[in-house]
Every structure is written in structure tokens, then in C-alpha cells.
Here is the input.
Amino acid sequence: MTESKDFTIDIGEVPGYTEKETSKPSWTSLVTAENISGFLSDWTPFALVVSYYVFSTCLYMYCSERTIAIFWFIYMITNFYIAGSTVLEAFMSITPCREARKIVTQAEEKGWLFPTANNDLLILDLLIVAYLPNEKDIIMDRALYALEQIDYPRDKIRINILYNTPKSIEPLETQLHELTERYSHARVIKVPNSTSKADNLNYFFTLETGSDLIAIYDCDHYPHPNAPRWAVERFIADKEVDIVQGRCIVFNSEDTFLTSMIAVEFDKIYAVSHPGRAAMWGFGLFCGSNGYWRTSLLREMKMDGDMLTEDIDSALRAFSRGSKTVHDLNVTSYELAPTTFPAFWKQRLRWAQGWAQASMKHLKMVYNKPMDPLHPKYSRDFTARFGVLSLLLIREFSYYLVTQYTCLVLSFVIVKFPRSGTELGKLVYFQYPVSQWLFIISIICLIATLWITNQVKSEFVSRRMIILFSIQYPFYLVLSATIGLYGHARQVIRYSSWNPTART
Here is the structure.
């Protein structure tokens, strides 16, 4: 323990004083209520999750064999359902993938002549949304790329740079605003009093720009030069489409092992799960970036700044009123994955809590009736309602099932510690005869899903990455479930800090 030092103030030169006065800082001045509140807010979720794991593991250690058998059967059945749903989505994604490839082949054969003449294209506002302190190193590069590389008639598109910053960053801000002098289709807007992406977007929605469509991109994205054209063609071909969500691809997969795993995960999500779910359940979702909206719909809905994942909330609100969202695999965009585990952890915790918020808010879609004057004939059928139940409730509940299974296995290891790898395998997977079949079927489902993912993998993902991803997939599931629990714990204590991901 260090010795405290006196803080002395020499006031001998001050008129009326000839001696030194001594003052000491008090703990009450150093440890404020705000510090305590921040500490509790940051560490209470951690304590809750650790307590959950310890309590659950200890509980299983004292359960009877019959009770353990019941729990084991429930968890294996649940695992089978999740694996089965995943592989069904994967198989359902085969048709959209084939159609996307067919359209590209036809475009190549025609010399990349798109169906719609340039003069008949819709007017597009493409938004690049940035938080400068975190994205100051990449915003100029992304802005120049969008202004120079996107292949769309310049009289039909505006590239809008929307940014907010708590402090002035020069000469960057001046250089950004100078882009409007060099490029006729550039618009740079510093959003006043903004503290979030939602604030930036809502401010833009108040501006009358005359556009037919609005595309939203995070600052770390490189849209494919033809992505806007593919999206607009989709709107023109189907007048009922309200939102087109494109495919996001991680392009820094070679940076670290973590980024390579995220790259495989994104291929699995955007090229397999999203289009497969849309085909299976009958609805798609806007995912936050590389998404195109009809301007009238987006201006009316806006973004809810009280939601941590305002993009998922807006997607569910759009679906709740009957808006049609489609996933187009030709509308591609390339983005950065977090390169460090702390950055990944912060990002996924924010997503987990945001999904928990959105799930609680929109679970009512399972049973209520859509009320929207723009879609008076829309009615959610049983398939769509069950899809909502699976997406919002079963998915959130699966975090507990996966972690409970993990705690059950830990209790086995503690009580019946295996002496060999064979004993460990038997202990973990084959405690009961039915487990063998459920486990084998789940493994087959996983292999089938990853095989389909391999067929549609991006140019930045190798077969080796997919194999490594499949090997560590059980650990990834436990990590994802733990992050989900952490997000729930944060929601319980009303954690509201926004932790943006730094981009370099």
C-alpha cells in the first residue's frame, strides 16, 4: 500500500496570508457515484453469467441419474431441431443461388447490358454512414471508391457521406467537404447533435432529395460497382418489393484466424441462411448495411434511436406491416471483420443485446394481426408466424439450451473425470443410446450445411478455412450462446453504452 502525499498550496504571496495550508483529497471526491454506477454496469452482467454457469454445473452434479437422463434427452432433441432447421435453410438456399448465377451468366452473354435503359432507372440516394473518431482512417478511401467506382448513371445517383463526430477532425473534414467541388454527385453532411447511426439516418430522412430509393452502407464497406444496378433492376422487375438486402462479404479474411472464421460465418449467413430462411419462412430481413429501401417507406418508418440494433428493429417493423424484403445474392458488398477478440466481443455483445430488445418488442407478430393501410390485404400465414417464433423466441432460448448442455457435460467431467479420449467421447456424446443417433444426424446436418456453404463461398474464403470452421464449430456455438446470455444480462440491467467498432 502506497503512502498518501499531502497537497500543499503556498499562499504566502497572497495578501493577508503568511503560512502554508495543507489539504488532502478525500475518497468522496475521487470515487463518485458515476464511477460506481459505471463499474456496476460493466461488471454486473459478467457476474450474472459466471454465476449462471457455476450454479447450473453444481446443480447437475447433485441431480439423480434419471433426472440427468431427462435433461440430456431434451438437450439432444433441441440440438437436433437446431441442426435440422439449419440444414433445411441451407437446402432451401440452393434455388436462390442457382437463380443468381443464372442471371449473372445471362448478363455476361449480353455484354453486361442490363434490362433497363439508363434513362429509365430509378433515382438512388446511396448513404455512407460514419462515426469519424472510429472511422477517420477509412472514410476518405471509401468515399472516393464509391464516387469513382460505382457503375450507375451519375445523373441518377447521389453519394451521400453522413458523419457525426464529437470533436472537429481536421484537415479531414475540410477534405471531405471539398469532394462536392470535384464530384457533381457527391453530398457531404455533418449531422448536428448526432450520437448514433440512427441519428445520422433520421436527419437525412428529413431532407427532400427527390430519390426513389435509399441505399444504406456502413463506412467500412466497398459496394461492388454493379451492386446498385442489380438492386434497382430488382425493384423495377417486381413492383411489390420494398427492400432489397444484398450479400455482405468479409474481405480481410487473411488478416487473422479470427477474421478467417468470421469470413466463413458471413458466407454461411448471407449466402445460405438468409436466402434459405426467406424461401422457407416467406420473409426476408434488412441487415443494417448493403440494404436498399423504397424512399417513401424508409422516410415514414425512420430508425428507432432507442434500439441498440436499430437496423433489425426497422427490418421487423417493415415485415410486421407487410413490406416485402428480398435477398439478392448479386447485390454484393465487401466489409471489414474485427481483427481482435476484444473488438469482436464488443461488437457481438451489442448485437446480442440488440436482438434481445428487438425479440421482446416484436414477438407479438406470432399472434397479432398486421395493421397497415398500405398493405390492407396482407395477412401473416402459419408458416410466417412460425418463422417469427423460430427467429425471435427459439433462437433466443437456444442460448440457454446450448449453455445448459455445456454445464451438464462439465458436471460429468467433474464427477466422472475421463481417463482417455475414448472415455471423454463416450461421456460427452454417448451417455445414452438415443444420443448416438441424434448426434450422428446432427453431424450430418452440419456437414451438409458447410458443404452447401463451400459451393457458394466468396473469393476470400478457402476450403481450408471452412474445414477449420467446422472443427471449431462446437466451441463457436458455446461462445455465441455465452455472448447471447451476456446480452440478456445487459438487457436486464438496462445497459445502454454504445461501443462502436474501430476501423482501420
